[in-house]
Specification:
By secondary structure, the chain is an alpha+beta fold. The protein folds into two domains: 169 residues, no CATH class; 145 residues, no CATH class. Helix content is 55%, strand content 18%. The strands form two sheets. Strands 1, 3, 4, 5, 6, 7, 8, 9, 11 and 12 form a ten-stranded mixed beta sheet that branches. Strands 2-10 form a two-stranded antiparallel ribbon. β3 and β4 form a beta hairpin. α2 packs across α11 and α11 packs antiparallel against α12. The longest helix is centred in the first third of the chain and has 37 residues. The chain is elongated. The relative contact order is 0.19.
Length: 365
């Protein structure tokens, strides 16, 4: 009987029903798309950094886990010292540049030493840069910016010519000469990080302990495990940002459900009075309103999840460099958030409905 009354009420007011469902779907999609973008971007950066093929990242003391945050502060001469340790096979200095206009990273590298550590680029077109004004880009960047061999790419106030397009996954999306990157950042003689390849990669943690004794005072990170470091526990503000997104979405959901249920009660005052006159208890009325809210939220959750995947597909078709990751955990979190907003938003309207006097309700126009 309850569901018959609920369906009849929703069917009688299709516009209000549709708007409520769309608002809940927006709440769910907002959480999944934004959190999916932040999580996906962090994981993509971690995956590409691990893809350099290095075993250890050698950084200044206190350096951030996000390479693009740190300025170049390591004297390049340190590389010669590292090369003398018997357990190190090869090292390569890298200057990391964050290109704000493209929302991506560029690496300043020495192609020869970078190839020894990473195994070299897989070229799809062209060749390595040979001049200061040449760069190499990965295939995703080339697709996103619609560039080809010989195309001009403007980075800040400098213009570069694309000399090669490589397979993505080896650190950055843009590569330029080491000296050019130092000049670009005005950090001559300094680099951001040294990527180290060990002679024996089976015991990276052991090598890190030895390197800590041989070269104390530096930040050392296990590169194959770097993707695991790109999480909320290691990125300042990451979890706080995600919580803020969920809170804002929850507030939107609560307000929409509250307005919807409150409007429902005002429109159905006489119906509620009839139910009370026929013996419907206050708890019966409260549960009826809450069930209706949860039913609308359930539909909104399903539509929101479907919409989020649609939004992501459209976004990536226009911006291939964007990375998203929607996990089952976050889908559950978004669903819980929507259901919570349904319960919270319907509590006051349901209590108001239950407290109505049947006689006054019959007289309501």
């Amino acid at each position: 009987m309850n569901w018959h009354i609920i369906f009849a009420g929703l069917k009688a007011r299709p516009v209000r029903t549709g708007v409520t469902i769309l608002a809940v779907a927006l709440q769910v999609a907002l959480i999944l798309v934004i959190v999916g973008l932040t999580t996906g971007t962090a994981q993509e950066v971690g995956r590409r950094t691990a893809g350099t093929g290095a075993d250890i990242m050698f950084q200044p003391a206190g350096a951030d886990v996000i390479l693009a945050v740190d300025a170049a502060a390591l004297p390049i001469e340190i590389g010669q010292k590292l090369a003398q340790f018997s357990y190190i096979k090869s090292t390569t200095p890298v200057v990391v540049i964050f290109i704000a206009q493209e929302v991506t990273m560029a690496y300043g590298i020495d192609p020869e030493s970078f190839a020894k550590v990473s195994g070299g680029f897989v070229y799809k077109k062209g060749r390595v840069f040979q001049a200061r004004n040449e760069i190499v880009v990965d295939d995703i960047f080339a697709k996103d910016k619609k560039v080809n061999i010989g195309s001009d790419v403007k980075l800040k106030n400098r213009t570069y010519k694309v000399s090669g397009i490589v397979e993505n996954g080896k650190g950055a999306r843009i590569f330029m000469g080491l000296e050019e990157a130092q000049d670009f950042n005005n950090t001559h003689g300094l680099v951001t990080v040294f990527f180290i390849k060990l002679k024996d990669s089976s015991d990276i943690e052991g090598a890190i302990k030895m390197l800590n004794m041989d070269a104390p005072g530096y930040e050392l990170r296990n590169v194959p495990q770097y993707a695991e470091l790109m999480s909320g526990a290691n990125i300042p503000g990451f979890d706080a940002f995600n919580r803020a997104v969920v809170f804002i979405a929850l507030c939107i959901g609560v307000l929409v459900i509250f307005l919807s249920m409150y409007t429902t009660i005002m429109e159905r005052t006489r119906e509620i009075g009839i139910l009370r006159a026929l013996g419907g208890s206050k708890s019966y009325i409260v549960l009826l309103i809450i069930k209706e809210a949860l039913f609308l939220c359930s539909i909104g959750v399903v539509l929101g999840i479907i919409a989020s995947f649609g939004i992501i597909r459209v976004a990536q078709s226009f911006f291939p460099t964007l990375a998203f990751n929607i996990s089952w955990q976050w889908m559950i979190n978004a669903a819980i958030s929507a259901m919570a907003s349904g319960i919270i938003g319907s509590i006051h309207p349901s209590l108001k409905a239950a407290s109505q006097d049947p006689v006054e309700a019959f007289a309501y126009e």
